Amino acid sequence: MLLLMLRRALLLTFLVLNVSAFAKPKYQPLPVKLDREGEKWAQKTLRKMPLEEKIGQLFMVWTRAEFLNSNSAAYLQLRNEMNKYHVGSFAMTVHYEPPFLYKNQPYEAADLLNRL
Questions:
Q1: What is the mean pLDDT of residues 57-80?
Q2: How far apart are CA 83 and CA 33, in angstroms?
Q3: How far apart are CA 116 and CA 47, in angstroms?
Q4: 3-state SS record for 16-81
Q5: Based on the number of CB atoms within 10 Å of its own CB, is 82 exposed (0-12), middle (13-18) or buried (19 or more)?
Q6: Residue 88 CA to its chain's centroid (Å)
Q7: Which of 6, 21, 44, 75 could make an S-S bridge to 68, C-beta 3.0–4.6 Å?
Q8: Confidence grade of residue 100 (pLDDT, cut at 50, 70, 90)
Q9: What is the pLDDT of residue 30?
């Protein structure tokens, strides 16, 4: 009896997963349409950028959300990397030490982002 119930549960799980894997999403994203002004701005901006800046836009710098003194080596390295390599984006995450996720430093994160 138990084996039969287990088989049915596994079969049902398998069927649900297969059906959901092939289901179409309810909403399809609309195509992005740039207006003429936006296209002109993008082309003008790209023409003004040297090759080094264009390449820098492909990279992302990562740091943890924590207090960094403006004179600390970590802060200076982060700031210099962003300026030197013309970084295109910046990622910040919170500290994680199993089993805890530390989300208690929003002020420090905002301060660091504003200084950079």
A1: 83
A2: 32
A3: 26
A4: HHHHHHHCCCCCCCCCCCCCHHHHHHHHHHHHHCCHHHHHHCCCEEEEECCCCCCCCHHHHHHHHH
A5: middle
A6: 12
A7: 75
A8: low
A9: 80
SS3 state at 93: strand
Q: If we measure between CA atoms, which residue out of 54, 96, 18 comes closest to residue 10?
A: 18
CB 58 within 8 A of CB 32: no
- Three-class SS state of 4: helix
Whole-prediction pTM: 0.50
Say whether 98 sits in a helix, a strand or coil: coil
Q: What six digits make up the tokens of 2?
A: 């138990």
Give me the residue label for tokens 């990562």.
62
Q: Are 86 and 53 in contact (CB under 8 A)?
A: yes
CA-to-CA distance for 93 and 105, rounded, in angstroms?
A: 11
- CA 111, distance to chain mean position in Å, is 20
- Residue 88 is classified by DSSP as S
- To 10 degrees, the CA torsion angle through 89, 34, 51, 85? -10
